Amino acid sequence: MRVIAFSNLKGGSSKTTSSLAVAAELARRGRRVLLVDLDPQATLTKSAGLDPSHAAAQYLKGEIEAAAAVLRPEGLWDKPLAENGGALHLVPASRQLVQFEGQAVARLANRLVALLDAVEADYDFVVIDSPPQASALVTATLASADEVYVPVASGRGALDGLVDVVELSKRFGTTPVSGAFATRVNVSSHHDLDLAEYVAQQVAGPDGEGGLKTYIRETVRVRESEMARVPLPFYDRASTAAQDYAALADEIEARPSPRII
Ligand SMILES: Nc1ncnc2c1ncn2[C@@H]1O[C@H](COP(=O)(O)OP(=O)(O)OP(=O)(O)O)[C@@H](O)[C@H]1O
Ligand SMILES: [Mg+2]
């Protein structure tokens, strides 16, 4: 099992879009994937077509066990996945997660690690979506993930959040950032293409060589899939961003699992 987190301290940097698209793409390929929504905004939960629930907060508080925190949605996209051997399950979020923002990181991280240990045999990938702004929720995410990827959305101050995540991981001695990639890239803009290249170069790959090659193109399909509450790879697999997320999933899958040493 590989534990992947998408993190960036800047709001609106495509963390949730990337978490859901990569997780759904991996599930589509027959991987068993557990999404963990740790953002009090519960955007991932809603974008996946589910209702916010207190499951994540109750689990972190120790009120319920891991098995009770995992939602196995019966919906439009779980049947084709099951036929393929894949699964896309979710630990849903709600506003109640706000109470953990200022909590001790170690306690929260221990509880998250206990969740990961409990589901180790059931999933190939766990994908954690973290909130913006530095908080115990973000630090605990960085501390419990094996791989941290930073999406950087094109726009003013785009790189600030990347620098912040790298610094936070250094300060707390957590997993170093595994990769960074640009999102919302307009291919007719030289600025966007330059940014994409620059972002990729900021974090070397696991072999010390080049970083991620993929960047994600801007398309209205992303917003449409959110409104439809259907993960992008199921909503429109032919869309540019879905193709780019498939390429990103390829790159991530091709990397060695940090857990198998
Ligand atoms: N490739 C894309 N093309 C067009 N729009 C996109 C793309 N990726 C993300 N967006 C849009 O950018 C906005 C922010 O994306 P998202 O919610 O994934 O960011 P976030 O980092 O999770 O935000 P927050 O910090 O609030 O959690 C969304 O409205 C989404 O529709
Ligand atoms: Mg988000």
From TrEMBL:
Span of domain AAA: 1-171
Pfam families for the chain: AAA_31
Cited CDD domains: ParAB_family
Superkingdom: Bacteria
InterPro entries: AAA_dom, DNA_Partitioning_ATPase, P-loop_NTPase
Protein name per the record: AAA domain-containing protein
UniProt source species: Rubricoccus marinus
